[in-house]
Amino acid sequence: MRALGLDVGTKTVGIALSDELGWTAQGIETLRRNEEDPESDFLKIAELAKQNDVETIVIGLPKNMNGTIGPSGERCMEFADSLKEHVDCEFVMWDERLTTVAAERMLVSADVSRKKRKKVIDKMAAVMILQGYLDRKGM
């Protein structure tokens, strides 16, 4: 069972992939979103899902600290709805509160430069989203 984890932002999408047993998540890339052709983003992710025999796509759902869904969460749900038109698999919206903050702290503690952190932060957040899902599913 492979799963794909997505950290959807306005400019990029961090992408992580699980191993075949569904135990661990690895970051695979950060997709720069195409504002002029958003359809190409969905096609790229659909191709990744197909190439890797993905059964589940886990999309980070940014919630407010009180559990409500704000504008960022609405955009993620719209992204998921559009992606569903291109990929035939299970979709899971995963509470991603503070994953980007945790990823940033992890990179800072590993002494990664600010310039390099900016390049990998979304991919790291996708790993944390997917790993959280895999850990909960494996319980």
Automatic annotation (TrEMBL):
<dbReference type="GO" id="GO:0004518">
    <property type="term" value="F:nuclease activity"/>
</dbReference>
<keyword id="KW-0540">Nuclease</keyword>
<dbReference type="InterPro" id="IPR012337">
    <property type="entry name" value="RNaseH-like_sf"/>
</dbReference>
<dbReference type="GO" id="GO:0000967">
    <property type="term" value="P:rRNA 5'-end processing"/>
</dbReference>
<keyword id="KW-0963">Cytoplasm</keyword>
<feature type="domain" description="YqgF/RNase H-like">
    <location>
        <begin position="1"/>
        <end position="103"/>
    </location>
</feature>
<comment type="function">
    <text>Could be a nuclease involved in processing of the 5'-end of pre-16S rRNA.</text>
</comment>
<dbReference type="InterPro" id="IPR005227">
    <property type="entry name" value="YqgF"/>
</dbReference>
<comment type="similarity">
    <text>Belongs to the YqgF HJR family.</text>
</comment>
<keyword id="KW-0378">Hydrolase</keyword>
<keyword id="KW-0690">Ribosome biogenesis</keyword>
<dbReference type="Pfam" id="PF03652">
    <property type="entry name" value="RuvX"/>
</dbReference>
<dbReference type="InterPro" id="IPR037027">
    <property type="entry name" value="YqgF/RNaseH-like_dom_sf"/>
</dbReference>
<protein>
    <recommendedName>
        <fullName>Putative pre-16S rRNA nuclease</fullName>
        <ecNumber>3.1.-.-</ecNumber>
    </recommendedName>
</protein>
<dbReference type="InterPro" id="IPR006641">
    <property type="entry name" value="YqgF/RNaseH-like_dom"/>
</dbReference>
<dbReference type="GO" id="GO:0016788">
    <property type="term" value="F:hydrolase activity, acting on ester bonds"/>
</dbReference>
<dbReference type="GO" id="GO:0005829">
    <property type="term" value="C:cytosol"/>
</dbReference>
